[in-house]
Design a protein that fits this description.
about 800 residues; alpha+beta; 3 domains; single chain; eleven-stranded mixed beta sheet; six-stranded mixed beta barrel; 24 strands
Length: about 800
């Protein structure tokens, strides 16, 4: 029986080549898109789940409240981990992860730089059991000045990951012995790392400072509990912990505020919402997971609709087959199984083609998503997903045609070519509306994302980002430090370099925050403020105007450690009426007054609103050197800068970038979303139009005799084209009306992730509708024009 069903299915596919191609190709594209999105979503949701202890591990995040202002931090106090392990027996391990900036390593004849290096505790590899290629995870970081490298880092440094144990690496301030090489989980750990250094390697005075000050938060704390239940019930105990340890510290230092800790489950970090400030982890976007999942369902649904439409539309061709089979004794259930088996057979062919397409497209998809995704024939999760797709698509595509075709009565279908009247035409119209509703929604989404990205790139962000060339200076190089002012002078000798400035932070780079003591109207307040140490030329170079007061000046010797410039947001949030002259003090030894108020500028991503900022003069060599250059002769200017750098810093390689390009990196994930969104939107239109093309072809075939008679009666080609297309145009217009509120709601939700955003207008949805309508008219019009140009004599002789 099954063999007979498959034989009939194969013959029908062979007989109706165009319709079969559209079904198979459309389903293959839809299934391939689903497979790609499935492995992407599974990867995003699978971060850190490789860890066998994942359900017992939590990161401690902090809420720091000072004078009514609460900041959510991904970091926590340095002594928190050891204190938790000492005071609470349910805590099995507590480790610290302190991220440090890019490190320069000197080897004979070679200088290398490592990013994503962490200082951590010796039991790090119990909490995170990374696979050790060489070395002992239990003792690798027991001693000071020891380092564990990833396999990739070892190859970069030594050319191999084998036989490197015991070798020394010379950093800026110390040398470290390699005690282990580990394999990093690809795309599956929120920690993006290249090396781990023993935390006991930190300078003793810095270590002691961190141990005393609960408000010095420069690292994260991870806690592994002995049982899963202990972790789930631990959060309330932080109140007791704060009363015992934090509140005495506040009273001792005469601070008014609160430091509250909470647990964040390890698997939730990558897609979590906590830790908005100073987040060092590889963080994804949960909204993209939902968006891409819906897109996958939409694409597959459109492909299924094509199958259903074509199957019911061509029902006249199979009406007599049904009548003959019923006359020969077939019952309805057997006919249903026959048509369902045909659907599953088409789906199986589509799945095989889809897997080939997926394999071809995977490298391109990986490039778009910055992933290293793979598909394997032995992946049980993928195999189960494909099985579900086969069952779902086979059932969804075939269920309506099977029940519709199997109900024909022999006496009605054998005596003519006409099928009994049914609601099939209305159903087909509803399915076409659904297809274009989905297509218009996705086109609208693509337009909104594109316009938002254009807005982000072109918005006035309060400073001049163009033609600003940035160099990272090596603060650990003492010889360079002494020659820094001379280097600035040498730069300015080039007429193409207009200004030179230095700072410890630049717009777009993660900065620091500091506890600031403010005296206003006789009251003292504590505020955690974002800070940016700068030099005299920073504001003029970036064209940041002052709203009040003055800039830092060499004419005032006290500016070195007794002057502050704040932004307008700080003035507004703190309610200062006359900010110039307000006294401020911080832990870095700056004790003075506000001398100026800078106009607000976006020193962080446009995803976030402008926050209070305090700037003070940098009294050491800055981390960044900013050069305002002329746009002419850029190549020679950069070559000049490189030459001068090598004269003054022989040990450190030049790291440089243009400020505007660096700022654009903040929106790389959004731009990738735009690209992926655009591709999938194009796929939905292509699949929908393939179905529309086949449906139009069949409709014009059914009306061939009518078209011939109309031409004989004097109808023009264009009037016939209009006659054949107007019904489909109505369906697209209905789809536009339905899609408008859906697209509006969905994209408004996405835009809310930006503090600065465009407003959705009816123009976006109307433009998407016009695009969909134009594509539909072109698709339908082509077939209609061909039918209208046929010889009437041949058309009337049809059948």
């Amino acid at each position: 029986m099954i063999k007979n069903y498959l034989t009939i299915a194969f013959r029908n596919i062979k007989r109706n080549k165009i319709g079969s191609f559209i079904n198979v190709f459309g389903l293959a594209i839809g299934i391939s898109s689903c497979v790609l999105i499935f492995i992407f979503v599974r990867n995003e949701q699978g971060y850190d789940k490789w860890n066998p202890n994942a359900k017992r591990i939590y990161r401690v995040v902090s809420d720091l409240t000072l004078t009514g202002q609460t900041d959510h931090l991904a970091l926590s106090s340095f002594q928190l981990g050891p204190t938790l392990k000492r005071d609470y027996p349910e805590v099995e391990h507590a480790i610290r992860m302190m991220p440090v900036y890019k490190q320069t390593i000197w080897q004979p004849g070679k200088v290398t730089q490592l990013e994503n290096v962490y200082f951590t505790d010796s039991d790090c590899f119990v909490v995170f059991p990374f696979h050790f290629i060489s070395g002992n995870p239990n003792t690798a970081l027991n001693e000071p000045y020891t380092i564990v490298l990833t396999e990739e880092s070892a190859r970069t440094l030594f050319g191999t990951s084998e036989n490197v144990l015991g070798r020394m690496l010379k950093f800026a301030r110390a040398s470290y012995k390699v005690t282990g090489v580990i394999r990093q989980p690809k795309n599956e750990s929120h920690l993006n790392f290249s090396a781990f250094i023993s935390i006991s390697s930190l300078p003793r005075n810095y270590f002691q400072t961190l141990q005393y000050d609960w408000f010095r938060m420069s690292q994260a704390t991870y806690v592994m509990f002995k049982t899963e239940d202990a972790g789930k019930k631990f959060d309330p105990k932080f109140t007791q912990f704060e009363e015992k340890h934090i509140n005495p510290f506040l009273r001792e230092n005469q601070l008014v505020g609160r430091l509250h800790f909470m647990l964040q489950p390890l698997p939730d970090i990558h897609l979590g919402k906590r830790g908005e400030h100073f987040e060092y982890a590889e963080v994804g976007n949960r909204s993209y997971i939902y968006i891409f999942s819906f897109v996958a369902i939409f694409i597959l649904l459109i492909a299924c609709i094509n199958y259903m439409n074509l199957a019911t539309a061509r029902s006249t061709k199979r009406a007599k087959e049904v009548g003959i089979r019923k006359t020969a004794g077939a019952n309805r259930s057997q006919l249903i199984w026959q048509f369902m088996s045909e659907s599953v057979f088409v789906t199986l062919i589509s799945v095989l083609l889809a897997l080939c397409i997926t394999e071809i497209m995977l490298p391109f998809f990986n490039q778009l998503t910055d992933k290293s995704l793979m598909i394997s024939a032995f992946d049980p999760g993928l195999l189960l997903f494909i099985l579900v797709v086969i069952v779902f698509v086979g059932f969804a595509s075939g269920v309506y045609p099977a029940f519709y075709l199997s109900r024909f009565q022999p006496i009605e279908v054998l005596k003519s070519n006409n099928i009994p009247k049914s609601g099939s035409a209305q159903i087909r119209k509803l399915l076409v509306i659904l297809q274009f509703c989905i297509s218009i929604t996705l086109i609208t989404g693509t337009l909104v994302v594109y316009m938002q990205m254009q807005y982000v790139k072109n918005k006035d962000i309060g400073f001049s980002k163009d033609n600003v060339y940035v160099l990272r200076s090596p603060p650990a190089d003492s010889s360079f430090n002494k020659k820094f002012e001379e280097l600035k002078h040498e730069f300015l000798l080039n007429s193409n370099i207009v200004q030179v400035a230095g700072s410890d932070g630049i717009p777009g780079e993660r900065g620091g925050a500091i506890l600031q003591y403010v005296e206003y109207n006789g009251k003292k307040e504590e505020r955690l403020l974002n800070m940016m140490p700068v030099d005299y030329n920073f504001l003029p170079l970036l064209n940041i105007p002052l709203a009040a007061g003055r800039n830092f000046s060499k004419d005032f010797a006290s500016d070195d450690t007794a002057a502050f410039i704040v932004n307008e947001t700080a003035v507004k949030q703190f309610g200062w009426k006359n900010p110039v002259g307000i006294k401020m003090l911080n832990a870095l030894g700056y004790n003075g007054k506000i001398i100026g108020v800078a106009k607000d500028f976006n020193y962080a991503s446009l995803h976030t609103s402008i926050e209070p900022l305090v700037m003070m003069l940098n009294n050491k060599v800055p981390a960044y050197v900013l050069l305002k250059v002329k746009p002419q002769n850029l190549a020679s200017t950069i070559s000049f800068i490189d030459t001068k750098w090598k004269m003054f810093s022989k040990k450190y390689p030049l790291e440089s970038f243009f400020l505007d390009k660096n700022l654009d990196r903040q929106y790389r994930a959004d731009e990738k979303m735009l690209t992926i969104f655009a591709y999938f939107s194009a796929l939905t239109i292509i699949i929908a139009c393939l179905g529309l093309l086949a449906l139009t072809s069949f409709t014009t075939e059914q009306r061939t005799r009518e078209i011939g008679i109309r031409k004989v009666m004097g109808a023009s080609t264009y009037s016939i084209v209009g006659l054949l297309t107007k019904d489909f145009i109505k369906l697209v217009l209905i789809a536009l009306i339905i899609a408008a509120p859906i697209a509006w709601f969905a994209m408004d939700k996405w835009l809310q992730t930006f503090a600065f955003r465009i407003q959705i207008s009816a123009f976006f949805i109307l433009e998407a509708g016009i695009m969909a309508l134009f594509i539909a008219v072109c698709t339908i019009g082509y077939q209609a024009y061909r039918a209208a140009n046929q010889n009437p004599a041949e058309s009337i002789k049809y059948e």
